[in-house]
């Protein structure tokens, strides 16, 4: 169903004609009451909320049937209930269609959303003049009961969901420990129990949940913060890995692969069986030498596109079964090539010789998958051992790889440079040590040179590699010293692909984390206008990257006027209501910085649409959005802002919203709301008692 929306000519006042308002309320209440296939999570909050909506729906229906004129205060009440019920609908839809695991992680936050909506329903009913309405005794009694319940409602958090959430967090911690150090034990019986309790019971359930988590991660990128995005990626990785372990024997395609592997195993020399039998009782295999999938000794280690290493046979079976993601990280594999990890293979051979363990070379077509059977659980539960020598060897291997790729950048053909830049781009994604090693290998000057390449892929790979390298703080100064900034601005202005332009903006954002870089970049006359242009033309991610870069640059006072002159203010105001862009908070944050300079204040005051938008954001914005909205309103009302103050006083929603934030908002929001209320109070007093 389409969302019920207010007619444009009524948005400013927030009040609908009585007939249309009641019709919309009844329609939306019926939509909420008739929702099907409700989720397992928040079951009590959802059922109680639907029951409340059904109760208040009887009020709307009876008022429509009586067809009598309504007092103004009842119109205000019904209008507020319209907004509340619309938010209830969105909340229920989000619980129904969103990720179960993310909902479990946020169980207290979601429960609080139900609580806040019930309290707002109670505040709306505060102004309903029941004595002036022509209602039956039953309806009047139901509304009074609902009002009393809403006024004394308590936050309802299901203790079972809290317990499940804690169990899930423990499982995530074990999984993250395993990914970082190949340590930790995951109890998949417990994993299955927790996931089953929230409705994830089949492989298709897991696949659908992974898609929802990926969608949530994309939505949160740039707005939810690094911790939120990191947690979402951890959940995707855990679910992907759990699916492969829990349903390994139940997946039909895997069964076919295993049958094929059985036939292949029969042709392998019997000595291999002896070798694999001894492997099942091997003590203290270094964790770095175990395949993350089979947990057996890797005899033929290979690297996949994500940068993780697996035994060739295990990862081949995974890919042949139709999977296109890395089992360890959950990251989608952009190609299916298996690159031999010669450095690790040499270390495994040396370890086998030192420990008198037979080592048989395994061809890509053979398999040890069926040879591990009962040993898998025993090996999986064994205590991990940290081998510094293997870690050093892995670091040396990265160093050799980086030096080799830098050589290709320097001397290779166009095709070789394209591939080398791409491989460095991937290598720079996987950790701070890799970023340091790549820079030490001398990659940065060559990548800067490739920014001016006429080949779109080379340019895109070069700017993205520099972006990834810039995440390591020491590399920021190296990139700036290499004269990269002008080339990056060129890519931002006229890159061969939109991804190149957007990653150039992200690189400017990363580099401008350092104050001196803010000054240097801001002094380039083309940098800020190019970011403003991307803010207009880019994808959602590109707009967010551009807004983030503009914010970083605007922290430096010398850059604020340049951002205003480049035309950022009208565009940022447009983006406040652009649902597709999804950067309302980012746009507000930049505007709240720009209002502190005279040019920004003048440009923002010239907007006729901003104040009503800010008032709406005081009610419906995020916590961060509300803080920045108050900052803007306070700045607009100070120093000659009497007209804005009068507009606020005339708007019936502004004062209640500010009063609510002064009580329930964040510390910063409460402080600024109090200051703005005092300013408006003085303005009101002066208008009623003019001097002279």
Describe the 3D structure.
This protein is mainly α. Helices cover 69% and strands 1% of the residues. Strands 2-1-3 form a three-stranded antiparallel beta sheet, with helices on both faces. α2 runs parallel beside α4, α4 runs antiparallel to α6 and α32 packs antiparallel against α33. It is flat.
Quick recap:
The protein has 692 residues and is mainly alpha-helical. Helices cover 69% and strands 1% of the residues. The two termini are 59 Å apart.
Short descriptors:
3-stranded antiparallel sheet, mainly alpha, 692 residues
Give the total of beta strands. 3
Helix-and-strand structural type? mainly alpha
Biggest β-sheet: strands ordered side by side in the sheet: 2-1-3
CA distance, first residue to last residue: 59 Å
Biggest sheet, open or closed, and with what strands and sense?
3 strands, antiparallel
Radius of gyration: 31 Å
Specify the overall morphology: flat
Mean pLDDT: 80
Strand content: under 5%
Give the low-confidence spans.
1-17, 249-262, 264-281, 360-390
Query: How many distinct helices?
Result: 36
Helix content: 55-70%
Helices and strands in order, then pairings?
Elements (H helix, E strand, L loop, with lengths): L7 H4 L6 H16 L9 H24 L5 H26 L2 H6 L1 H20 L10 H15 L7 H23 L6 H10 L5 H18 L5 H21 L5 H15 L3 H10 L21 E3 L5 E3 H9 L18 E2 L1 H13 L20 H6 L7 H24 L2 H14 L4 H9 L2 H8 L5 H15 L2 H9 L2 H11 L3 H14 L3 H8 L4 H11 L2 H15 L2 H9 L2 H8 L8 H11 L3 H8 L4 H11 L2 H15 L4 H9 L3 H11 L2 H22 L4
Antiparallel strand pairs: 1-2, 1-3
Helix pairs in contact: 2-3, 2-4, 3-7, 4-6, 6-7, 10-11, 17-18, 17-19, 18-21, 20-21, 21-24, 23-24, 24-27, 26-27, 27-30, 28-31, 29-30, 30-33, 32-33, 32-35, 33-36, 34-36, 35-36
